[in-house]
Design goal:
There is one protein chain. This protein is α+β, with helices and mostly antiparallel strands. It is built from 21 helices and 22 strands. The N and C termini lie far apart (about 65 Å).
């Protein structure tokens, strides 16, 4: 028999709709029939050549099946309905005065399909209107309000139609044939976006994620050319860009790249801006988003929507988003009180970094900054000229005592830099003040030139008591590589305060101080902490577990929900790379040392804030190591950023950290899921360590870098 043409099939579908049938069973009945037949959602998805998530959506009423799967799925359900008819519950009328038991079935109300089956109208001119109606009905089912359809949509082509996958399995019909039409639809009918995170901030712009099929539909390349990859954007003369310009849409200075922003100047208080994310142009960096770019559209929508709801709608890479999150939670301006005429004005928001960029003092400037333009070319600044607050990269040889132990155990601090940001007092919107021979004040953030070479780790103050330690078995708290300082050097306030805490006097030679200060990052930490904790709970590691329960729950936790595992890595990347972007370096574009680069024009270019956070993280690690050494005589053999390796007579962190009645040594490491607590990084043997160091011909190879896998791994500076 000759196969029907696509046009005939479409006309037949239209006739069925006009006739009012056939109708699908309600979502709950679909699930009942499948379960009665003993078929899993995954098996049904394989039979219909779709994803398990799509089947879940059908059975939850979040979306409706469409051709070519609609007909076969309906036939299957009808066949099951004949084999497994719905039971008719016997309902007796209760006696007068008898209460109806809770949970008694009530007559089912007709279900509102979140995404009605759409058919091609017989008249071409009516097609856009019909498709807009379908999109609106979907939005109404998802919820009301300007952001009823969630923060974003992943656009793809299905059955030659453009659709958008959104949060909660929602699927939108998108009636747009050109990119300008897509932007117009998004701003007028898409109902995409997210509410502001702070009362003085602004709502998040809608985000559209373009899959390769959507790119082709709009005349965009699936991949950038080599030249375009080097410039990070589509060539300015591309027809799609010219089409946007003709429709009076503009692009930001970074052009049409992996994270393009298309806008018109604001009309009153209303922003007219849509952001695009293009995974095949490398928008989703695998360091933070793992394999997200390879996910099916529905799965990618779930991952990115979950991140958006817990962190914020992505504004670019996780580095950019981490920085934007700071601003979203601490907006630079707020509305003033009404003036005499009842009008409000934009004024500085206390506790923010303000609207203007700020030059750093020379000691905080990175090489090539304009404030250092007077220095001779190729001049190398040492610690007496430049602050070097960096994460640990320290190792020592194994001692004879270390080799007697059976294992080397790595413990890793959860969200170490986020935890260090919590409570950090940093400079705000006022420039630093220079002073000579100041008295040290631990309450004032800034940079201090001071000699800490006299601090002797053999004898330090711990808990207000002097204790004797083996100082050679600990890294110095004052340097990245753990060597003892040899003279005056620049340090952040936290580092100098720790020297005082250890029992030693300090006398700075000079300082750049920021009396206008506050806990700028607290809200940032709290949102990222909550996002991290909620996602860990999704992965089967909730708060409140005992150390033993936590370590057991962490075994294979990322395999329990691969999508949530991607979100977890993106949250961590937001912390790590967001803090690093506070000191973004110049890159490409013909830049020459001594010239400004684009990052310097934003108020969030603040290397002093990055230095303060890293100082707190490194000092926090040292404080915990000292407390453990003072109480148990155990010393680390390697420390890399937030991971420390200890010799132990067992493979578990419990063999390193003593616990009695659920409590461990005050001030030392604690096992658990919260930021600042530790998890198991990995376990090897002393023999493995010696063999690896011999193989690499590096007697001081940092074992913390290799403890997890047992193999050589890349650098991780924690920035």
């Amino acid at each position: 028999m000759k196969k029907d043409s696509k046009e005939e099939a479409l006309f037949r579908a239209v006739e069925e709709l006009l006739a009012g049938g056939p109708e699908f069973p309600e979502p709950a009945e679909r699930a009942r029939l499948r379960e009665a037949a003993g078929v899993t959602q995954a098996a049904l998805a394989r039979a219909l050549d779709t994803s398990p998530q799509t089947v879940k959506n059908w059975e939850a009423g979040r979306s409706e099946p469409r051709p070519p799967r609609r007909g076969p799925y309906l036939a299957l359900l009808e066949g099951w309905a004949k084999k497994y008819p719905a039971p008719s519950p016997r309902r007796e009328k209760p006696a007068a005065g008898t209460p109806v038991p809770e949970g008694t079935p009530a007559p089912a109300a007709p279900s509102a399909s979140p995404r009605p089956s759409s058919a091609r109208p017989t008249s071409a001119p009516k097609r856009p209107a019909a498709r807009k109606t379908a999109a609106r009905s979907v939005a109404a089912a998802a919820g009301e309000g300007p952001f009823a359809n969630g923060p974003l949509a992943v656009l793809t082509i299905e059955n030659d139609e453009l659709v958008g996958y959104g949060a909660g399995g929602l699927v939108l019909d998108v009636p747009a044939a050109t990119l300008p039409a897509l932007v117009e639809w998004t701003l007028t009918e898409g109902r995409l976006g997210a509410p502001k995170l702070d009362g003085s901030g602004r709502d998040a712009d809608p985000l559209l994620v373009l899959t390769p099929s959507a790119l082709e539909r709009f005349g965009l390349p699936v991949e950038l050319s080599e030249d375009e990859q080097d410039s990070g954007r589509l060539a300015a003369g591309h027809p799609v860009i010219k089409g946007l310009e003709k429709a009076q849409w503009q692009l930001t200075q970074r052009g049409f790249g992996p994270w393009a922003r298309i806008y018109r100047p604001a009309q009153g208080s209303r922003r007219l801006c849509v952001q695009l994310c293009i995974p095949s142009w490398q928008a989703l960096d695998a360091r933070s988003w793992k394999n997200a770019a390879d996910l099916a559209p529905g799965d990618l929508a779930r991952v990115m929507s979950l991140y958006a709801s817990r962190v914020m709608t992505p504004r670019g890479s996780t580095a950019v988003t981490g920085l934007e999150l700071m601003t979203a939670l601490r907006p630079p301006t707020r509305a003033s009180a009404p003036d005499a005429e009842g009008r409000r004005h934009s004024v500085h928001n206390p506790g923010s970094l303000g609207t203007e960029p700020m030059d750093p003092p020379p000691c905080e400037a990175i090489n090539g900054h304009p404030v250092l333009a007077h220095l001779p070319r190729f001049h190398q600044r040492g610690p007496e000229e430049r602050i070097f607050e960096e994460a640990y990269d320290w190792a020592r040889p194994l001692t004879a005592e270390d080799r007697k132990h059976t294992h080397l155990v790595g413990i890793d601090v959860n969200m170490a830099f986020a935890a260090a940001a919590n409570g950090a007092v940093v400079g705000l919107a006022s420039p630093p003040v220079h002073t000579v021979n100041p008295a040290f004040d631990p309450k004032i953030p800034g940079s201090w030139l001071v000699d800490l070479s006299h601090v002797d780790l053999d004898r330090v103050m711990v808990g207000k008591k002097w204790v004797d330690l083996c100082g050679d078995l600990l890294p110095s708290p004052f340097t990245q590589y753990g060597e003892r300082p040899e003279g005056p050097a620049w340090y952040a306030t936290t580092t100098v305060a720790y020297a005082v805490e250890l029992g030693y006097q300090v006398q700075p030679l000079e300082a750049w101080l920021r009396p206008d200060s506050g806990r700028y990052l607290d809200a940032w930490y709290q949102r990222l902490r909550d996002a991290y904790m909620a996602t860990m709970a999704d992965l089967g590691v909730p708060d409140g577990l005992s150390p033993q329960e936590f370590l057991a729950a962490m075994d294979g936790y990322k395999q329990r929900d691969p999508d949530a595992a991607i979100v977890l890595d993106a949250i961590k990347g937001t912390v790590k790379f967001g803090l690093g972007k506070l000191q973004q370096k110049a890159a490409g574009g013909g830049w020459m040392p001594g010239q400004p680069w684009s990052a310097l024009s934003r108020p969030t270019w603040r290397p002093d804030i990055r230095a303060a956070v890293i100082s707190r993280a490194r000092i926090g690690m040292h404080r915990k190591m000292v407390a453990l050494a003072a109480a148990t005589g155990r010393y680390p053999v390697s420390v890399l950023s937030d991971c420390a390796v200890y010799a132990a007579n067992g493979p578990s962190p419990l063999d390193v950290l003593p616990y009695t009645d659920g409590k461990t040594i005050p001030g030392s490491f604690r096992i658990g899921v919260s930021p600042g607590m530790v998890k198991h990084e990995g376990t090897q043997t002393p023999q493995w360590a010696e063999s690896l160091r011999e193989h690499t011909n590096n007697p001081l190879l940092n074992l913390a870098r290799n403890i997890k896998t047992g193999t050589t791994a890349g650098l991780d500076t924690g920035e």
